[in-house]
Amino acid sequence: MTSYLLDTLKSRFPEAVLETHAFRGDETALIKKEALLQAAAFLRQELGFDMLMDLTAADYLPREPRFELVCHFYSTTHNYRLRLKCPVEAHDAAVDSLTPLWAGANWFEREVYDMFGIKFNGHPDLRRILMYDGFEGHPLRKDYPLKKRQPRMLHKD
Amino acid sequence: MGLETALGHSFLTTRLDEAVNWGRKYSFFQYPFVTACCGMEYMSTFASTYDISRFGAEYPRFSPRQADVLFVVGTVNEKLAPVLKRVYDQMCEPKWVVSFGVCATSGGFYDNYATVQGIDKIIPVDIYIPGCPPRPEAVLDALIKLQEKVGRESVLDRKYR
Amino acid sequence: MTEKKTAEPGKTPDLEKLEDGRLVLNMGPSHPAMHGIVRLLLTVEGERVVGSDIEIGYLHRGFEKTCETITYNQCVPYTDRLNYVSPFINNVGYALAVEKLMGVETTARCKYVRVIMSELSRLTDHLTCIGANAMELAAFTVYFYLINAREELYKLTDSVAGGRITPAYTRVGGLTRDLPADFKRDTAEVFKKVRKNISDADKLLTRNRIFYDRLHGTGHISKEDALALSFTGPALRSTGVPLDVRKATPYLVYDRFDFDIPVGSNGDNYDRYLVRLEEMKQSMRIVEQALAQLPDGPINHPDFNVSLPPKAEVYGNIEALMAHFKLTFEGVKPPKGEVYQAVEGGNGEVGFYIVSDGTGRPWRVRLRPPCFPLTGGLSKMIQGGYLADIISTFGQINMIGGELER
């Protein structure tokens, strides 16, 4: 299956695009994390993707690279969607922040940092957002037990 | 009748507890600590269809200092727990706590790293309302139950809480 | 942000005098004029807000983590409690995402019923939003009018799904039950009352001097900023961008109805209010058209690997019995892969990103919460405005804790 978007992306970043697919019609490109910011800038400036719809991550624990950063882009002018994914290694969990391109990436990235522990280089204010200070670990990592509580105050039984 | 007949309409005799409790139970000032889904049913309960003011719990007070019943409406998580405790501590005696819905009661079906498994681990609770969320009828029932409970109390009890 | 050190939760002094005559004011987490628990740390200069830091997370309930440990259908009740003001939309969005992952399409009747229930949810959402906002601005009567309308709608959803607020109505490949026999008649009656209530509220609010002054021009956001901040829904449409998932990428059968997408022009609270008011009327239009077109037929997917077989089959047919057993214990098993499915929620685009590893439990469920970027952009919207304007702005972004923090 050929897709204009994925082909353009592949021809623009032949080195960085690792894999593309369109499972169930969702056009997806797997891209090296070093090229994420450039690719996103290309999408925004030249392909008309003016919205960062969502930014999240997923943990594929036994696998290496362990994490995947998942960004969904949307273009209001052309009405199409694209998903970019970056493999992120556990020992070097840091990605370039998208905040210079979309101000809305700020909170999404804070949430990914909070939940997965992936750091964002160049983020203006990277700190926990849903959990509290003093919380250890990152709850959405697969090796964080579902019921491991870290109370902020003493509980009665 | 006894004394009243002898002395005219100037006074009546009763027990102190009864008089005080009568005043207390029909003029609850609630502090709605609304966090989650149950808040929608709380809104329904105090709007005109179900009209909680028929039972004397007319108006929510959003200052803990002015409230006597704390309605904990919805899930309380670990991050919020100290806030709830602080609100409770700021309320003046006598005070009662209603745990509204299963999340406040036991954590409900949220049994994970984030949620407190019932607010009774943090503050004492007088009435639990089951339901996810409870229907307004259940809330009114709970309010009546609380009134009955208050009616059985003695002014001397409060210091033992 | 003028004052970074105020951001530390737990250690923050509630009221702190700064050197240059500015104050740090703590608003929330439990504040009378804000439905929902969010904490605003405001730096104020007199009545002007010069900086703000918004702290959320007081209703984080581990939805995404929990979903990884249960079967696909068991996730449905959790989705109710995301945006609890419009539960059906979450149900539908989740079911559509899983169906997309499995590559199945539901029956025609099921699609229509899903549309009808989604639009009823949109009505309850907007009624609650406007009602609560009006109450916070001291228009108590309007609150009662709109909550009465919502009460009628709850009776309707109660009769359909057996629950007022948390219906858990959809299943992968279908619904829990069909519409009741008198549904059309009941809806017509309910809509009569709802229309009356909405028109009353319209008369009381729209041209009301106080209400207008408090909403008009406050919480302003430009079109460019709204797009960059990932705004969707009424907040984006109030700036003039006609983005609505129902029109842009029609799902279910939204392409078969005639309805309009109201847009604003100023991007302020008043436009957001007007957009919501008009959307309610459009929702009722959609429901009426859907009821007129509603086809007969089954509501569940015929494949027993997708939805539960009917009870009569289960008791009389060994294959159906086995399918029932397998579906209940192991759940549906979508192939390996990932999908993103967007639906138009009350506050904007509700997107479910689901990753399957081929087993009966999702590997990762992610909800794109529409009010997450809105709350993130609140700082920008209240910047430079008066302290009192926060109430109307916060009310009009319609923050729903369950969805925001999941």
Summed up:
The complex is a heterotrimer of chains A (157), B (161) and C (406). Chain A is α/β, with parallel strands linked by helices and 157 residues long.
Characterization of this structure:
The complex is a heterotrimer of chains A (157), B (161) and C (406). With 157 residues, chain A is α/β, with parallel strands linked by helices. In chain A, 20% of the residues lie in helices and 27% in strands. In chain A, the strands form two sheets. Chain A has a five-stranded mixed β-sheet. In chain A, strands 6-7 form a two-stranded parallel ribbon. In chain A, strand 1 and strand 2 (28-31) form a beta hairpin. The mean pLDDT of chain A is 87. Chain B has six helices and four strands. In chain B, helix 5 links the parallel strand 3 (96-100) and strand 4 (127-129). In chain B, helix 2 (16-25) runs antiparallel to helix 6 (136-152). The N and C termini of chain B lie far apart (37 Å). Chain C has 406 residues and is an alpha+beta fold. Helices cover 47% and strands 12% of the residues of chain C. Chain C has a single domain, classed as Cytochrome-c3 Hydrogenase, chain B. In chain C, strand 8 and strand 9 (364-368) form a beta hairpin. The two termini of chain C are 26 Å apart. The radius of gyration of chain C is 22 Å and the shape is globular. Residues 1-14 of chain C have low confidence and may be disordered. Classes of the chains: A alpha/beta (157), B alpha/beta (161), C alpha+beta (406). The interface between A and B is medium-sized, with 16 and 13 residues.
